[in-house]
Automatic annotation (TrEMBL):
<feature type="binding site">
    <location>
        <position position="342"/>
    </location>
    <ligand>
        <name>N-formimidoyl-L-glutamate</name>
    </ligand>
</feature>
<dbReference type="GO" id="GO:0005506">
    <property type="term" value="F:iron ion binding"/>
</dbReference>
<feature type="binding site">
    <location>
        <position position="344"/>
    </location>
    <ligand>
        <name>N-formimidoyl-L-glutamate</name>
    </ligand>
</feature>
<dbReference type="InterPro" id="IPR005920">
    <property type="entry name" value="HutI"/>
</dbReference>
<comment type="similarity">
    <text>Belongs to the metallo-dependent hydrolases superfamily. HutI family.</text>
</comment>
<feature type="binding site">
    <location>
        <position position="340"/>
    </location>
    <ligand>
        <name>Zn(2+)</name>
    </ligand>
</feature>
<feature type="binding site">
    <location>
        <position position="83"/>
    </location>
    <ligand>
        <name>Fe(3+)</name>
    </ligand>
</feature>
<dbReference type="GO" id="GO:0005737">
    <property type="term" value="C:cytoplasm"/>
</dbReference>
<dbReference type="GO" id="GO:0008270">
    <property type="term" value="F:zinc ion binding"/>
</dbReference>
<feature type="binding site">
    <location>
        <position position="90"/>
    </location>
    <ligand>
        <name>4-imidazolone-5-propanoate</name>
    </ligand>
</feature>
<feature type="binding site">
    <location>
        <position position="242"/>
    </location>
    <ligand>
        <name>Zn(2+)</name>
    </ligand>
</feature>
<feature type="binding site">
    <location>
        <position position="340"/>
    </location>
    <ligand>
        <name>Fe(3+)</name>
    </ligand>
</feature>
<feature type="binding site">
    <location>
        <position position="175"/>
    </location>
    <ligand>
        <name>4-imidazolone-5-propanoate</name>
    </ligand>
</feature>
<keyword id="KW-0408">Iron</keyword>
<dbReference type="GO" id="GO:0050480">
    <property type="term" value="F:imidazolonepropionase activity"/>
</dbReference>
<dbReference type="GO" id="GO:0019556">
    <property type="term" value="P:L-histidine catabolic process to glutamate and formamide"/>
</dbReference>
<protein>
    <recommendedName>
        <fullName>Imidazolonepropionase</fullName>
        <ecNumber>3.5.2.7</ecNumber>
    </recommendedName>
</protein>
Length: 428
C-alpha cells in the first residue's frame, strides 16, 4: 500500500518533481510481455521513466499521488509515419477527390512549391503547431519525413527543422521527381543518392536514422527505389518504403529483400506479399520480439522484422481499398498503425481516429489495434524504450477520457484524450 497518506491531487497537477504515483487507473494497458491489462491499477513515474506498474493495492510509496478517478491509461501513441514539414493548402484537391477524381502522386509537387517558398521560421512554426495537435491526441513519439523540398537546399532544411521537433527523422528525397527533372528521373536519383544525401546527413543530426522512397507508378520504380535505399543504407540510414499504395508495384518484395524497417500503405497485396510479411513477423516473435528486450536494449542487437504499417486515415481520405489488416494479422505480420499526416492523402495526426477506424472498418480487435499503434510503431522505429508501460521505459502515458479503451471505437470522433504525459511531463 502507498505509504504516502496525503490526499491525491487531480489530473491538472500531473506534472511534478520526484516520484509521482498515478493511481485510480480503471484499465492499464501495459503492452508488457504478457500484454496485461490491469484493473484498478497504478503507475509510478520517476523523472522521465516508468519505475513501476501494477495493481493499486501493491503500489509503492511516492512523493506525490495523482488520482485519475477511473480513467483508462495506455502508452502514448507511437506514430511511425508522417510528413509534417510543409506549407500550402491542398483542400481543393481533396474536394475534387471527393467529387470523383482519383489520387495521383503529382499533388506532391504542389506542396513542394509552397514549401520551398516558406521561410525557415514559418516552416518551423507550422511544424511545432502540428506536433502540438498530435500531442493533444495522445501521441508521444513521432517520426516525420523530408520530401517536400526535393532539391539539395530544401531537403537539408527540412531535415534540420524536423530534427528540432521530432523524435525520428526520415530522408525522403525520393518522394517525387520534381518538375525541373521531368523525364530525367535517373539523373534525379543521382542527385538524391549523391549531393542531396550528403547535405541531409550533415543537417539532420542523430535523429535522422531512416531513408524512405515512394515506390509507385508516377514516382519511383523498384529499381530506382533500390538504388536510393542501398546508397542511403551505405551512408548509415535504415531503409523503409512507401509501397503497394496504388497497385501491386513491387514495394513489399523490395522491402523484404532489403530488410527494411517497414513497408507502409500496403493496400494492394498479393498472397506472396502477405505471406512474406507474415513470415517476417513470425520470425521476429520466435526470437523473442520486443518482449525479449529490456527498454535499454541496444536496438542494433535485435533481429527486427519488416513491419507492415497500415494508414487507416489515408485509406479513407483517398477512398482506397482498405489495407488487408485482418489478413496480415492472421498471417503473423507485425503491424503498425500510423497517421501518415500530410496535406495530400491524410491531413490528420489523430491516432485515436486511426485506431478507432482499424477496429471499426479493418476488423482488427481492440487489442491488435492498440498494440499496432504503440508497440508496433515502436518496432517500426526499432525502439525498445517507447510503446509499453514497463519499468525502465520512457514515461509516456495517454490518459483517456473514458473508463475503457474500447471507447476509442465505441465513441468515434469524440475527444477521448484527457491528458498526454511525455518523458514524465504533462504536454497536453
Ligand atoms: N504516398 C506518398 N506520399 C504521401 C502523400 C504525399 C502527398 O500527396 O503530399 C503519402 O504517404 O500518402
Ligand atoms: Zn507517407
Amino acid at each position: 500500500m502507498a505509504a504516502n497518506t496525503e490526499p491525491s491531487e487531480t489530473l491538472d497537477a500531473l506534472t511534478g518533481t520526484g516520484t509521482v504515483l498515478v493511481e485510480g487507473v480503471s484499465e492499464l494497458w501495459t503492452l508488457d510481455a504478457e500484454r496485461r491489462v490491469l484493473r484498478d491499477a497504478a503507475v509510478l513515474i520517476e523523472g522521465d521513466v516508468i519505475a513501476w506498474a501494477g495493481p493499486r493495492s501493491e503500489a509503492p510509496a511516492a512523493d506525490r499521488r495523482v488520482d485519475l478517478e477511473g480513467r483508462a491509461v495506455l502508452p502514448g501513441w507511437v506514430d511511425s509515419h508522417s510528413h509534417m514539414v510543409f506549407d500550402g493548402d491542398r483542400s481543393a484537391e481533396f474536394q475534387a477527390r471527393m467529387a470523383g477524381e482519383s489520387y495521383s502522386a503529382g499533388g506532391i509537387g504542389v506542396t513542394t512549391g509552397a514549401t520551398r517558398e516558406a521561410s525557415d521560421e514559418r516552416l518551423a512554426a507550422l511544424l511545432a503547431s502540428r506536433v502540438e495537435e498530435a500531442r493533444r491526441g495522445g501521441t508521444t513519439c513521432m517520426e516525420t519525413k523530408t520530401g517536400y523540398g526535393l532539391n539539395v537546399e530544401d531537403e537539408a532544411r527540412s531535415a534540420r527543422i524536423a530534427a528540432e521537433h521530432m523524435d525520428e527523422v526520415t530522408f525522403l528525397g525520393a518522394h517525387l521527381v520534381p518538375a525541373e527533372y521531368k523525364n530525367r528521373a535517373d539523373e534525379y536519383v543521382d542527385l538524391v543518392t549523391g549531393e542531396m544525401l550528403q547535405a541531409v546527413l550533415a543537417s539532420g543530426g542523430e535523429r535522422l536514422r531512416w531513408a524512405d522512397v515512394f515506390c509507385e507508378e508516377g514516382a519511383f520504380t523498384p529499381e530506382q527505389s533500390r538504388r536510393v535505399l542501398e546508397a542511403c543504407r551505405a551512408a548509415g540510414l535504415t531503409p523503409r518504403l512507401h509501397g503497394n499504395q496504388l497497385g501491386e508495384t513491387g514495394g513489399v518484395a523490395l522491402a523484404l529483400e532489403l530488410g527494411a524497417a517497414s513497408v507502409d500503405h500496403i493496400n494492394y497485396l498479393s498472397s506472396e506479399d502477405i505471406e512474406g510479411l507474415g513470415a517476417s513477423g513470425r520470425a521476429f516473435r520466435a526470437n523473442g520480439g520486443v518482449d525479449g528486450a529490456p527498454p535499454a536494449a541496444d536496438p542494433a542487437g535485435i533481429d527486427w522484422p519488416t513491419v507492415a504499417t497500415i494508414l487507416p486515415a489515408c485509406d479513407l481520405s483517398t477512398r482506397a481499398p482498405l489495407a488487408p489488416a485482418r489478413e496480415l494479422a492472421d498471417a503473423g505480420a507485425t503491424l503498425a498503425i500510423a497517421s501518415n499526416c500530410n496535406p495530400g492523402t491524410s491531413y490528420t495526426s489523430s491516432m485515436n481516429f486511426c485506431v478507432g477506424t482499424a477496429v471499426l472498418q479493418m476488423r482488427l480487435t481492440l487489442e491488435e489495434a492498440l498494440e499496432a499503434a504503440t508497440l508496433g510503431g515502436a518496432t517500426a522505429l526499432r525502439r525498445t524504450d517507447v510503446g509499453r508501460i514497463v519499468p525502465g521505459a520512457r514515461a509516456d502515458l495517454h490518459v483517456l477520457n473514458a473508463p475503457a479503451a474500447i471507447h476509442l471505437a465505441y465513441r468515434p470522433g469524440m475527444p477521448m484524450t484527457a491528458a498526454t504525459i511525455r518523458k514524465g511531463v504533462r504536454v497536453a
